[in-house]
Amino acid sequence: MDGLEFCVKSLSYPLGMLMEGLERRKGGIITASRGRLYLMEIPFGALCYLTSLMLFNSLDQVDRKRLGNDYSSIEGFGRKLLGSKLGESIKPYLKSPGRYIGVVERLAIPWLEFEERKRKVETYLQKLKLEETLDRSRFLRGSDFLKELSVDEALLLSYIAEEPKKKELINAALGKHNPSFREAAKAYFTALRG
User: Fold this and answer.
1) Is 167 left (phi over 0), alpha (psi -120 to 50) or beta?
2) Same domain for 68 and 144?
3) pTM of the entire predicted model
């Protein structure tokens, strides 16, 4: 998993699944076609935002509706980018995304595969007992079993938590106990800062 896939999966795990196995190529616009993902050389934050948007727009109407909350997450990410120090340098990409992305073919999320992966990590979500969490430090001490997860499983666990507060707790626990996730997240934030 590269940094771009990590970023997309952090916004929408199902959209990130569409990137798996796609060969990365340089392109004039960001698009996906015939097993390839064509990318532009632009700042990483804009690339992640536009790639997520392109993947979302490549879905059929039913899948787009199903991922309505994920679209809100992508838009929220774009707003955060605009409000950051990088805002001015990436503003053209975020204000006129249609100039930089294209839908060449329809993509379909492998929902059966998603559900299978989800079932595997749901047990970790149940073990975390997030509903009973009052003391953050006690929660972090009791979540060391998260070191067993791969980076991909960690991203899925965070995704299925849904609520922002739960996601935040899970990401803090993953950062504390899972060295692979911590390194991937560190690389992601470094790329984001440019």
Assistant:
1) alpha
2) no
3) 0.93
